[in-house]
Design goal:
The structure is a single chain. With 497 residues, this protein is mostly helical. The chain contains 19 helices and four strands. The strands form two sheets. Strands 1-2 form a two-stranded antiparallel ribbon. A two-stranded antiparallel ribbon has the order 3-4. A hairpin with a 6-residue loop joins strand 3 and strand 4. Helix 13 packs antiparallel against helix 17. The chain starts with 9 loop residues before the first helix and ends in a 14-residue tail after the last strand. The N terminus and C terminus are likely disordered.
C-alpha cells in the first residue's frame, strides 16, 4: 500500500473539512437531483418523444440499472486506486449523460444518456470514504450524515425543480440543470478535494466478479422494473428472475474463491453490514415507492376520481418539498444522536417516522395539509436512516474496504427503490376505476393499500437494527491497525457483530 500526503495537524484537518465537505455534498445533490427529476414527467415525455408508456419507463430503468452496476465498481476502484480520481470519473459520467440528453431528440440516445448519468451513483460511497479519510475524527459522523441525507434532500428538490422548470421551459431544461450542477461539482471536487491519503495498491482487480455482479443485478432490475408491463408470471419476467438467482450464486462462489475479490463476502456477512444492507433495501423501497405514490395521488383529477388535488407537476413537487427540508434537519440531528447514542437510535427512528407518515396518509388524505405534514415526517425519517447506515458500516469494515462496503449499501437502496416502485405500481394498477376518460385511475382503496404497504415496510426497517449487536473493531489488512469506531469519543467493544 502507498500512502499519499495527508493533513497532519488538527488545524490542517479543520481547514480541509471546510473545503472538502461542501464539494462532496454538492456532488451528492447533483446525482440525486438528476436521478429523480424525470420521474414526474415520464407521461409527458412519452408524448413528446412519441413512445409508449411502457417504453418510457426505460428512462428510469436504465438509470437505476447503471447506478446499481457502477456504484460498487467505482467504490472498489476508489479503494484500490484513489477516491478522488474515481469521484471525478463518476461525475464525468453524470456530466456526459446530461450533455447528451440536452443535445438529442432521440429516445434511444436519451436512454443512453440516462445510463451515463447512472455513473453518478458512485458519488455516495466515494464521498463517504473521502470524509472518513480527510475530516477530523470529531467531524466524520456529521460529515457522513450530511452526505447521506443529501440523497433525500436532492430527491425532494429534484421533484420541485422539475415542475418549476416545466412551467417556463421544455423538458430539456431538466437536463440543462443536471449539466450545470454536474460541471460545478466537478470543478469543486477538482479544486477542493485533496489527494487520497489511502490507496490500496496491493489489492487486485476481479473482472469475473465484476461481470457476474453486473449480470445478476441487470437481470434482477430489468425483471422488477418491467414486471408490471410484461406480467409477473410471463416467461420473460420469470426467466430473468431465474437468471438473476443463478448468476448471483455463481458470483458468490467466485467472490469466496478469488484472491482479491471485488466484494469481500466475509465483510458482507458481518451482521453490522448484512443487517444494515437489509435496512437500506427496505428504506429504498419506502422512499422511492412513496415518492411515486404521493406524486401520482396529488396529480389525480379530483372531479373524476373524487380524491386527489388535480395538481400540476410543480404543485405535486412542492407538496413533496417538506421531505427535502425534513432530510436537511435530519443530517445534524442524526449526527448528534449517533455521537451520543450510536447509530441504532436514528436508524430505528427513521423506520418508525416513515411508518407514521405513511400510516397517517392511509387514514387522512383529503386536505393538502395532510400531504405536507406526512411528507415532512417521512423526509425526517429517511434522513435519519440514511445518516445512520454509513456509521454502522464504517464501524465494521477497514478503511480500505470503505468504498465497496458503502457502495453495496447504495446498490441495495437502489434495488429496494426499483422493487418499491414496481410493487406500488402493481398495487395501483391492480384496482382501477372505469371512467369516461382514456386514462385508468386507481381507486382510493388502491392508494390506501399502497400507503399501508409502505408503512409496514418502514416498520420492518425500523426493527432490523435490533438484530445488530455492538460493532467490534476491525483490523486494516494493509496496516494492521485497529480501525476506530466512527462514533467520536466512544471506544469500540468486541462482540460477534
Amino acid at each position: 500500500m502507498s500512502e499519499a500526503p495527508q493533513p497532519t495537524t488538527a488545524a490542517e484537518k479543520k481547514q480541509s473539512s471546510a473545503r472538502v465537505l461542501p464539494a462532496l455534498i454538492l456532488a451528492m445533490l447533483s446525482f440525486s437531483v438528476v436521478q429523480t427529476a424525470v420521474v414526474p414527467i415520464l407521461p409527458s415525455l412519452a408524448k413528446e418523444l412519441d413512445v409508449s408508456g411502457s417504453s418510457i419507463t426505460w428512462l428510469m430503468t436504465a438509470n437505476l440499472l447503471s447506478a446499481a452496476v457502477l456504484t460498487p465498481l467505482l467504490g472498489r476502484f476508489g479503494d484500490l486506486r484513489g477516491r478522488k480520481p474515481m469521484l471525478l470519473i463518476s461525475l464525468a459520467g453524470l456530466v456526459a449523460g446530461s450533455a447528451l440528453a440536452v443535445s438529442t431528440h432521440s429516445f434511444t440516445w436519451l436512454v443512453v444518456a440516462r445510463v451515463l448519468q447512472g455513473a453518478g451513483g458512485g458519488v455516495l460511497p466515494l464521498a463517504i470514504s473521502i470524509v472518513r479519510d480527510e475530516l477530523p475524527k470529531q467531524k466524520v459522523t456529521g460529515g457522513v450524515a450530511a452526505i447521506s441525507a443529501s440523497m433525500g434532500v436532492g430527491s425532494g428538490l429534484g421533484l420541485v425543480a422539475t415542475g418549476l422548470l416545466l412551467e417556463h421551459w421544455s423538458y430539456k431544461s431538466i437536463f440543462w440543470m443536471g449539466l450545470v450542477f454536474g460541471l460545478i461539482a466537478v470543478a469543486l471536487v477538482a479544486l477542493r478535494v485533496p489527494t487520497d491519503p489511502v490507496t490500496d495498491k496491493d489489492g487486485g482487480a476481479d473482472p469475473l466478479g465484476a461481470l457476474t455482479l453486473a449480470g445478476w443485478l441487470s437481470a434482477l432490475l430489468v425483471a422488477v422494473s418491467q414486471g408490471n408491463t410484461w406480467g409477473w408470471t410471463s416467461t420473460r419476467t420469470l426467466g430473468l428472475f431465474a437468471v438473476a438467482a443463478v448468476v448471483a450464486l455463481i458470483w458468490g462462489i467466485i467472490e469466496v474463491k478469488v484472491a482479491h475479490p471485488l466484494v469481500d463476502m466475509t465483510m458482507m456477512s458481518r451482521p453490522a453490514v448484512a443487517f444494515t444492507n437489509l435496512a437500506g433495501l427496505l428504506i429504498g423501497f419506502g422512499m422511492y415507492g412513496s415518492f411515486m405514490v404521493i406524486s401520482n395521488f396529488a396529480q389525480t383529477p379530483e372531479k373524476f376520481a373524487h380524491y386527489g388535488f388535480t395538481a400540476t407537476v410543480l404543485h405535486a413537487g412542492v407538496m413533496l418539498l417538506p421531505s427535502a427540508l425534513g432530510s436537511m434537519v435530519a443530517a445534524p440531528l442524526g449526527a448528534l444522536l449517533i455521537a451520543r447514542r450510536g447509530p441504532r437510535l436514528p436508524l430505528v427512528l427513521g423506520g418508525v417516522l416513515g411508518a407514521v407518515a405513511m400510516a397517517y396518509l392511509a387514514l387522512r388524505h383529503s386536505h393538502e395539509g395532510d400531504i405536507y405534514l406526512s411528507s415532512a415526517i417521512f423526509g425526517l425519517g429517511i434522513g435519519l436512516a440514511f445518516s445512520a447506515m454509513p456509521a454502522y458500516i464504517n464501524g465494521a469494515v477497514p478503511v480500505e474496504q470503505s468504498g465497496i462496503a458503502n457502495g453495496m449499501n447504495a446498490v441495495l437502496r437502489t434495488v429496494g427503490g426499483a422493487i418499491g416502485t414496481a410493487v406500488m405500481a402493481a398495487i395501483l394498477t391492480g384496482d382501477t376505476m372505469k371512467l369516461p376518460i382514456p386514462v385508468a385511475l386507481p381507486t382510493l382503496d388502491a392508494y390506501r393499500h399502497a400507503f399501508w404497504t409502505a408503512a409496514v415496510v418502514c416498520v420492518v426497517a425500523g426493527a432490523v437494527p435490533f438484530l445488530i449487536r455492538t460493532v467490534k473493531p476491525v483490523v486494516s489488512v494493509t496496516t494492521g491497525n485497529r480501525v476506530a469506531d466512527p462514533i467520536p469519543g466512544r471506544e469500540p467493544v468486541k462482540t460477534d457483530a
